[in-house]
Amino acid sequence: MTEPPPPLGVYVHWPYCARICPYCDFNVFKAKGREAEAAELAAAIVADLEAQRAITGPRELVSVFFGGGTPSLMDPAWAGEIVAAARRLWTPAADLEVSLEANPTDAEAARFAALADAGVNRLSLGLQSLDDAALRFLGRNHDAAEGRRAAQTAARVFPRLSLDLIYARPGQTPAAWADELRAAVDLGPEHLSPYQLTIEAGTAFDRAVRRGLFVPPGDEAGADLYETTQAMLEAEGFEAYEVSNHARGAAARSRHNLVYWRGWDYVGAGPGAHGRITTGGARLATEAADRPADYIRGVHETGAGFESREALSPVQAAEERLLSGLRVREGVAFGEVAALGLSARHPTVRGLVNLGLLADDAERLIASPAGRRVLDSVTAELALAEP
Ligand SMILES: C[S@@+](CC[C@H](N)C(=O)[O-])C[C@H]1O[C@@H](n2cnc3c(N)ncnc32)[C@H](O)[C@@H]1O
Ligand code: SF4
Hints:
Layout: E1 8-14, E2 16-17, E3 29-30, H1 35-56, E4 60-68, H2 76-89, E5 91-102, H3 106-109, H4 112-117, E6 122-128, H5 132-137, H6 144-157, E7 160-167, H7 174-185, E8 191-196, H8 204-210, H9 219-235, E9 239-242, E10 245-247, H10 255-261, E11 265-269, E12 274-279, E13 282-288, H11 292-302, E14 306-312, H12 314-325, E15 332-333, H13 347-354, E16 364-365, H14 369-373, H15 375-384
Helix pairs in contact: 1-2, 1-11, 7-9
This protein binds S-adenosylmethionine (SAM) and iron/sulfur cluster (SF4).
């Protein structure tokens, strides 16, 4: 008997931003002057979803995620059309999650109600900081008061609210960070994603660090701030269900992220979007063109928006499953990474268990809290282990 295909998530990439932040290396473009292109892009995304339905076949739809870029800049009517298309093409779960990433400016908060009417039921708000000097350093186009107002509006309008924060900023002390986190908790989110600032190659921050304009915290200071995050949020009732994601109870976890971390399928639509679709016994990896104009042309010429589509080998698929599965508290079953030849008795697994980096579990590979702190080395060691 063949297994039923896994549930499906839909990722929609909206690449436009009012201003490009100096630390960001996502696939983003300045919104100004691209209004006509944006309207064409919304229509192309609907057409792309229709074309990819032919590949996925019928599925249960558990999540639609509008990421960016800045999807809160999008006309709510377009968001509504994309949600309606996804609901029509697949079978929506009773508790379908529809998330959207928003920047916390007054102008965007004024559109939250319309976005909720369009079907969005979970807002992921990019607060980043509640400190004005830090927001200036991060090059954000909002101050802390505006961020607080947006969070308060969002908490009223959307059933579910998550806040993104960026820590490990130069000179940040654990005490100041704990105060800032507490202030974010007081805004009432059910979910928090505090990310350590990473200096990505090719960004304005990368150039600034090379020129000596600022020095990011070292590994030890970063680890102290990570520990502060874990301890502080646990004390506030937030479970660290993933390395950078904390939820007040299981129902508050991001269902879309769980689609990735459980190795389920997702359709990617929009410029630069990636997808993973299991079909005919293989796991297909899709990737769309980064530039909006190329993506739109691709949809017009070929129907679907992806410019590349390749079947992952069983080892590649298992490596991906390992990488994402170890990020979540529940880990990954040995059976799901069988192509890597790992088992509870494997010498590499035993070694990592003895070091306290993996839980001692006969059925699953589960990173311990200590293991999650050094996850890159743990996954590299497992992926390179002799079968
Ligand atoms: C793609 S952004 C989209 C969110 C939205 N446009 C915003 O800026 O608020 C998603 C999140 O990634 C995080 N992020 C982006 N670049 C980062 C970096 N270099 N270091 C740490 N976090 C980063 C931010 O917290 C941001 O909210
Ligand atoms: S952090 Fe958000 S607003 Fe800033 S450039 Fe990246 S996607 Fe755009």
